[in-house]
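Assess this one:
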Amino acid sequence: MGLSLPFQGNLLYWTEASYGGGRSGTTMWVSSKVYDARIDTGEISKALRGISSPTVCGYISMPSDYSFHAEWVLQNVNAAQSLATACVTRTSSGDLKSLCFEMRANEDGTTKSYYLIKGCKCKTFNVKASMKNEYICTADFSACSVITAATIGYTDPTAIASTVTFAQFNRPGHVLYKNTSTAVATIVDSVDVTVNNNLTDYFGANNVYKQGAIPGALDVTGTLGISLDDGGKAFFDALYVPLTNVLINLNIGGYDIIRLRNCRWDGTSFDVNTSNDMMKTDAKFTAKDITWTTT
């Protein structure tokens, strides 16, 4: 039995035709740079104890409550092949896309062990970056089932093109308010946006696997590290004014703007001191929704 070598895997995904249905349609890469991919089995068995003995008297098997965690660098792939958009975009019926992941491990050229993770719906999604760093996406998924195998029965998709670039924090975004394109602040040192789909898992009485995962209310919150231009007057005056958009420029070309619509500031603070730094603040906000766009 071979040792489990590090850094010997890949992560692919598909949009399922039905919940838990597995591979379907186009095979897509998550990113050229995946930092972490992790399966969590949840509780496997529950120990039972009685008053007659200090030892365990029995066990009961728990439903299969799988989850999947992934971290990757955002790239300028189109909307149809962006895992980030699949994590936050609702269908016309208000549902989320059901995804299937293949997490390969310890590929040595002859044996390609992998985990096929079916029925994945995004519970929470986060995208963040700071000055001189890349945009990192983090997502946690509810999963229906996990299947293991040692052979790959299909051809890999085309490798991500060299023209697909990484998103990096080196181009300012703008905070827009009212119904104009007036900028009241500039994003100068950090972006942190979290989406919570408030997912609820459903189990069948006679089935150990999940029978469904239904998204609830969409919560979009975040923090922007922004400048307080000209002493912060423009931003302070706009604190109680509804924001039309927050636009975050990713500087990756093509599909490269995160748009947060109908935002409200949660609150902030203004600090004048002798640090010699520019006037800036970490402003927290709540948004109606999140989309990726080219304009």
Q: What stands out?
A: The chain has a mean pLDDT of 83. DSSP finds two helices and 19 strands in the chain. The chain has one domain: 11-152+164-293. The two ends are 53 Å apart (CA to CA).
